[in-house]
Every structure is written in structure tokens, then in C-alpha cells.
Write a structure and sequence with these properties.
Number of strands: 11
Distance between the termini: 35 Å
CATH topology: Spore Coat Polysaccharide Biosynthesis Protein SpsA, Chain A
Helix content: 25-40%
CATH architecture: Alpha-Beta Complex
Order of helices and strands: EEEHEHEHEHEEEEHHEH
Largest sheet: 7 strands, mixed
Number of domains: 1
Oligomer: single chain
């Protein structure tokens, strides 16, 4: 029997490096806002049940997406794991969940569908979407042991050797809802940012002998996030070239 799919889009952040007074995901890229592009990308991959997690100036994004998805709220900026946990208020049952950041306008429905097929065929509990980049600065690094993903380390928490790893986290995950929220609640904030990182779920799944897989995104453009105005201008150029 086909399992129901849900999408969770993280859009609670302020995006302070953008130096604007809007929530980052409310910025227009071409004809659509970042949050609309994220929703469209999931819907094109036949993910029609979508929860958006909002926070900073939530009413602005609410007005953009109120008829497009369900909405949950992160009351304090405590990290990505804390944000995803808000979706537990809506989700009740056994589902497949696709989690992604709201500032990733180029992740394609083809990639999502291919990754989901690998997740299904491998009967994974968790699938991490990653990519190889020549300059991994700023990205979470994928940590392997004997070809198995066992952890994701954020840039600030990496050792010197770990920073040399060029397989990076895309911030897109596919996970079975069974046990997910239970494990999410065990994540600690003992890192340099003192935040609850969603990436820590990988280590927790590994320790609990859950089956973890990976899907490598071939086109690095797809993992591009919008974190500052330089990246926004680069994204604008890409939108112009593709007329999307």
C-alpha cells in the first residue's frame, strides 16, 4: 500500500545576512517568492500535503501561502530540530516526510522523485540528500564510516580534517514518521550555536541501528540556498537564464 507523503518546509528564520526587514522566504525571486517556489517544487513531486514552519514576521508569509499549505509556528529561534518538532502538532500517523529548507528555489521535482524512489526501494528509515562541491565552506559535512552515513557535522563544529570533506548536506531529508518525533526530542543543543540541529538526527538514527541511506544530487545548483545578497543576485541570474 502506498504510504502518504507529507512535506515540511522550514521558513521560520529571519535571514539577517540579507540585511532586509522581511522574512527571507518572503523575498521575490523572479515572479515568485522563495516560499512559493519551495511549495511548487514539492507539489510538482506529488507532495500535496505540506506544512510550513513560520517564525519571524510570520504574518507576512501567512498572507503569501495561506491557501497553499498548513502552517505551524516556531515561537523561539532555537534551531531546525525545534522548528520541525512543531509539525508533530499536525502529523499523527505513519507517513513519509520530506523535509526541506524554504530558501532552496532550485531543488527539482525530478531530484525529489528520484530520491524518494531510492528511499522506497531501499526501505530506509532516513534518506539524506547530499552533493559534492569543490568549495564546501559553510555547508554541513557528511560523515561516513564504511560507506554508511553516520553523522552530519555543521561547519562550526567540524574538526580540521572534517572541513576537508567535500560531500555536503543539502538540507533535504526523507524520513519515516514512525519514531521520528520521539528521536527528534532527544536532540541536545551542546554545539557552538547552542541550537537544536536537525542534522543531529543522523547520529541518533545511527546509534539506534536505523537504516540510513543517501542520494547524491548531481547538479550542485539545486542545493543553492539564499543566505546573502550575493547569493540572491546569483539566483536572479539563474532565474533569468531559465525563464522560470
Amino acid at each position: 500500500m502506498e504510504r502518504e507523503k507529507w512535506g515540511i518546509i522550514l521558513a521560520a528564520g529571519k535571514g539577517s545576512r540579507m540585511q532586509i526587514d522581511l522574512p527571507k522566504c518572503a523575498i521575490k525571486l523572479g515572479e515568485k517568492t522563495l516560499i512559493e517556489r519551495a511549495i511548487d517544487n514539492l507539489k510538482r513531486a506529488s507532495v500535496n500535503n505540506i506544512i510550513c514552519i513560520l517564525g519571524f514576521k510570520k504574518e507576512i508569509i501567512e498572507n503569501i501561502i495561506k491557501d497553499k499549505c498548513l502552517i505551524c509556528y516556531q515561537k523561539e529561534t532555537l534551531g531546525t530540530a525545534n522548528a520541525v518538532l512543531e509539525a508533530e502538532k499536525v502529523l499523527n500517523g505513519n507517513f513519509d516526510i520530506i523535509i526541506m529548507a524554504g530558501d532552496m528555489p532550485f531543488i527539482s521535482s525530478k531530484t525529489i522523485n528520484e530520491a524518494y524512489l531510492k528511499y522506497q526501494n531501499g526501505n530506509y528509515d532516513l534518506l539524506v540528500l547530499s552533493a559534492f562541491v569543490s568549495n564546501p565552506y559553510g555547508y554541513g559535512r557528511i560523515i561516513h564510516n564504511n560507506n554508511e552515513i553516520i553523522d552530519i557535522k555543521e561547519e562550526r563544529d567540524c574538526t580540521i580534517d572534517e572541513r576537508k570533506i567535500n560531500e555536503v548536506n543539502s538540507s533535504v531529508y526523507i524520513v519515516k514518521s514512525e519514531d521520528f518525533f520521539k528521536y527528534l526530542k532527544t536532540i541536545k543543543n551542546n554545539n557552538k550555536q547552542h541550537e537544536y540541529y536537525l542534522t543531529d538526527i543522523v547520529k541518533i538514527y545511527h546509534v539506534n541501528n536505523k537504516k540510513i541511506g543517501s542520494y547524491i544530487i548531481k547538479d550542485n545548483k539545486e542545493i543553492m540556498g539564499i543566505n546573502d545578497m550575493n547569493e540572491f543576485r546569483a539566483a536572479e541570474e539563474m532565474i533569468k537564464k531559465t525563464n522560470s
